[in-house]
Design brief:
Helix content: 55-70%
Shape: elongated
Structural class: alpha+beta
Oligomer: single chain
Distance between the termini: 26 Å
Number of domains: 2
Number of strands: 6
Strand order of the largest sheet: 1-2-3-4-5-6
Order of helices and strands: HHHHHEEEEEEHHHHHH
């Protein structure tokens, strides 16, 4: 790498670090404030709150990093042009690809982080986050269960206990679960205990009955000596919540368990999540290619760069939003995979072609009214 390339790399990387830290801090604070009620209502301390919000960071950085890279590239090229460095290097015979190489190297670093995050870090952090949320939720339910009162930790879920004994055992417990649209469950038990094991918690009922009411069907009653409920249960059918696709490792998305409850009900989401992780690795290079196409050529002070910056930013943002929409379509329609990969790869191809085409020409007639990527000095 030449001295000038190292200079551009340092400029771009430092700008990326500053922008990434700033954007992440702003979004992190907003998310932390949103989750504060869950943590404080559960009686958790400051360390638990910091752990809870810190687990959001890996996924947050993975989302923000490509956007920060694009903004850093815009800032770096614009600053080099304002300082006349691009003009001097161009006059000395440097081509636009001389400026592109260090920016592409920064894109490689961002793509490397996305690869690590998508494969390992994000699934791990999401699972830890879910476990911690379930723990806080369990602690909250335990605090809400006061003798003689009805407690509703969430809509459609109501607890009532007659009293607690000296050992903390729940006496005369009733639980109503109406979260399902067409099914209502009522649990009645003589005694109950909250059992914690690792990061999970269970409500163990003894000597009771389960009343199940389904629309257009007779009510069924099942008596039991002992019944265990997962406190993290999200389905009224009593099945414990399994990790969602975003919290699965890649090998779990490649070969999902056919008997997995979530996979049976959402097979398309597994497919969409898997290919979204791979497609996200392309976007850093797509953004750099677009920025180079619009701002990679030196301009004189009479040739404004404001319109080019707005066009580059808008095109990158629009392409990313279209990619998100394509991922949602892919979950329902497998043929949408052409859009999932075609959008970022097509963006690279068109931006590269626009760089090579030069002023006064459209990109092979495909985008005749698109603002020219740059005007040669």
């Amino acid at each position: 790498m030449t001295l000038f390339s190292r200079y551009i790399f340092r400029q771009a990387f430092s700008a990326l670090a500053m922008i990434l830290l700033s954007l992440t801090a702003v979004v992190w604070i907003a998310l932390a404030l949103k989750q504060m009620s869950l943590v404080t209502s559960g009686g958790a301390g400051g360390l638990v709150f910091m752990e809870f919000t810190a687990l959001i960071l890996p996924d947050l950085i993975a989302i923000i990093a490509p956007i920060a890279l694009m903004i850093a590239a815009l800032y770096t090229l614009n600053k080099l042009n304002q300082d006349s460095e691009l003009i001097v290097m161009t006059a000395a015979g440097a081509t636009v690809w001389r400026f592109a190489k260090p920016l592409l190297l920064v894109a490689v670093l961002v793509a490397g982080w996305l690869l690590i995050a998508n494969m390992i870090v994000t699934p791990w952090s999401q699972r830890k986050l879910n476990d911690l949320a379930n723990q806080l939720r369990t602690d909250l339910i335990s605090q809400l269960l006061q003798p003689g009162t009805f407690a509703s930790p969430e809509q459609g879920l109501t607890f009532h206990i007659r009293e607690r004994d000296a050992n903390g055992k729940l006496l005369g417990l009733m639980l109503s679960d109406t979260r399902a649209e067409n099914e209502k469950l009522t649990y009645v038990a003589e005694t109950g205990d909250i059992l914690k094991k690792d990061a999970k918690a269970y409500l163990v009922l003894h000597d009771g009955k389960v009343l199940r009411r389904v629309a257009d069907q007779d009510t069924s009653i099942v008596e039991f000596d002992s019944y265990v409920l997962d406190m993290a249960t999200a389905s009224a059918k009593g099945k414990a919540e399994t990790p969602k696709p975003h919290a699965r490792y890649v090998w779990e998305l490649l070969s999902p368990d056919p008997t997995d409850f979530y996979y049976q009900n959402n097979p398309g989401s597994f497919r969409a999540e898997l290919h979204e992780r791979f497609a996200s690795l392309i976007y850093p290079f797509t953004f750099i290619a677009i920025v180079i196409a619009y701002l990679g050529q030196a301009r004189t002070t009479r040739q404004g760069r404001g319109q080019a910056q707005v066009a580059a930013f808008s095109l990158c943002a629009g392409l990313k939003l279209a990619g998100i929409a394509a991922g949602n379509m892919f979950a329902a329609n497998p043929s949408a995979i052409l859009l999932v990969y075609g959008l970022p790869v097509g963006g690279i191809a068109l931006a590269t072609l626009g760089t090579l085409t030069g002023p006064g020409q459209s990109i092979i007639g495909l985008l005749p009214r698109l603002p020219l990527p740059f005007a040669r000095a």
